[in-house]
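Quick one: structure for this chain?
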Amino acid sequence: MSNRTVIRGGLVVTASDEIHAEVLIEDGRIAALAASGTAAAEAWTAERTIDATGKYVLPGGVDAHTHMELPFGGTFASDTFETGTRAAAWGGTTTIVDFAVQGVGHSLREGLDAWHAKAEGNCAIDYGFHMIVSDVNDETLKEMDLLVEEGVTSFKQFMAYPGVFYSDDGQILRAMQRSADNGGLIMMHAENGIAIDVLVQQALERGERDPRYHGEVRKALLEAEATHRAIRLAQVAGAPLYVVHVSATEAVAELARARDEGLPVFGETCPQYLFLSTDNLAEPGFEGAKYVCSTPLRPKEHQAQLWKGLRTNDLQVVSTDHCPFCFKGQKELGLGDFSKIPNGLPGVENRMDLLHQAVVDGHISRRRWIEIACATPARMFGLYPKKGTIAPGADADVVVYDPHAEQVISAETHHMNVDYSAYEGKRVTGRVETVLSRGELVIDQREYTGHAGHGVYLPRSTCQYLN
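Got it. Here's what it folds into:
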């Protein structure tokens, strides 16, 4: 006996189309679409009918940059895979790609196994892994080939955080050369960490210790310089490159230039860079610590170039870099020394709503919203068309979205395991009403009906955005 659901009366929005259509779901997949009111659609019968009249029917969001349970700065990100994936579902995201971490002196396999152990049986939605490569050597390079074969097809390197995740140019080049051969995609945290550490030390010696100095020492020019260097190293290696959490006008310019040259270079930004600024870092007392992340928040004038980059496709993806630390007890580790504030913001629950607000505000179109939040991340990281679209054969990861509902974002009502919201008090138009993951109701009319263990691990193919 098949398990059938019909979603009737909604406007189906994908990256390529907007159509008033009924959606038939069977055994966890999209079985068919038919224009509303047609005989074919009227003839469908199902055990469950969802009325989406006046609503959007969207593909589930794909957040390709999260850090659940990440060890950082002497503590751990406060969301577990259980709490973090539940919050993601509340926000209309049905797939995350998190980062497994290789410790220096350890193998990639050890890091990957550790992250599988954290996530397995705990996720409310489907998940995959990127691999953070902290220690490039001959063995690591061989392991990269094996990981690509088994579906971990992207590798993150850091030009920042000397002594923790940092790779020098030679290590970066070697990893890029390997990925050019094995089809993997290098993801780059592009900031000149060696220079930043000098500026941090100098600021502390001058007695500049408040959170706002975190943004001042991590200069936009040092993001741009590292972005430029990463692009040229990738060009030498003949490899594609994906630059994570782009925050600055000057870095966007480097990506645009590379793309104008025809290079396979891609960029991601995050809601915090589109909606927050150094004004938040400068909030009185220690409040600014809530907004400490790297790359840092920039002055407001950078936002226009980020929006433009999203419209012109010089930036392809909006992910969250969700890495929450509670204000009490975690962010407070940096009281009196901004360099000790754990870097990261909560956001996995807010991304789809904030981007819908951007549609309302005229920054992007509806289809572009779905492109940057669902379809392109799925294509970039080898999950399309299983994820990221509503089409026959795709997983039935579907969001019924009310574009007229108004809400106020607040820590009082969010589901992330963190004691503050980066967007506290922000009014937005649009809200998730119902979420299906592989045809199963996870959110039903604003009620959580999902459970830990529903989410399955996703081996991924290589980057499909190059095709």
